[in-house]
Amino acid sequence: MGAQLRGTAEELAGILWREHTVYRERSGGVVIRGEHVRRWISLAPAGGRDEVLVRVGRILDGGTTAPARSEAVVPLSAGTGVLAATCRRLLSEAAADVAPVAPGRAAPKRSKQSKRSKQSKRSKRSQRSGKATRPRGRGKHTGFGSWAVLVCVAGVIALYVYSTAMRG
């Protein structure tokens, strides 16, 4: 299916965009990048034998890809025309999600529900208390390096006290 998917992606990319890059994903799918339109399309094998999962997203500043904005499952046997129509529809939905903001207006805010789902309980607590969150990891425990420094300092102090007591 990988070779068929790559051929379909090459043909689809030629239909949709004149400038494009097609490459294979680690998961076995194929990605079409349109740098000039700042969008990407991913074609991956879906659950069915002859189905392909089409995902569409944006390309951010610096060339990194944002998560998929919309997706659909399309039968591969339907042909490149149906696949191209589906991609165009998904691209228009993705473009509508990121409509440019007119100067002087604020960007639309996300709903509270989506913010809540992305925050962990720990970050909610820290926002309420006004404290910054401590990076996850070892926490308050003293590391080995700190203990070694403390032992060395205590040894130097003990040596000083011993030498002073012996002299006099």
Which labels suit this protein?
168 residues, alpha+beta, 5-stranded antiparallel sheet, 5 helices
Structure description:
With 168 residues, the chain is an alpha+beta fold. It has five helices and five strands, in the order αβββββαααα. It has a five-stranded antiparallel beta sheet with strand order 1-2-3-4-5, covered by helices on one side. A hairpin with a 4-residue loop joins strand 2 and strand 3. Helix 1 packs across helix 2. The protein is rod-shaped. It starts with a helix and ends with a helix. About 8% of the residues have low confidence.
Based on secondary structure, the structural category is alpha+beta
Most strands sheet: 5 strands, antiparallel
Give the helices and strands as they follow along the chain: HEEEEEHHHH
Strand-residue fraction? 15-25%
* C-alpha-based Rg, rounded: 29 Å
Number of helices: 5
Instruction: Compute the number of strand runs.
Output: 5
| N→C terminal distance | 89 Å
Low-confidence region ranges: 107-120
General form? rod-shaped
Whole-number mean pLDDT: 77
Query: How are strands sequenced across the largest beta sheet?
Result: 1-2-3-4-5
Amount of helix: 40-55%
Provide a short characterization of the protein structure.
By secondary structure, this protein is an alpha+beta fold.
Reconstruct the topology from this structure.
Layout: H1 2-16, E1 21-24, E2 30-34, E3 39-45, E4 51-58, E5 70-75, H2 80-97, H3 112-118, H4 121-129, H5 144-167
Antiparallel strand pairs: 1-2, 2-3, 3-4, 4-5
Helix pairs in contact: 1-2
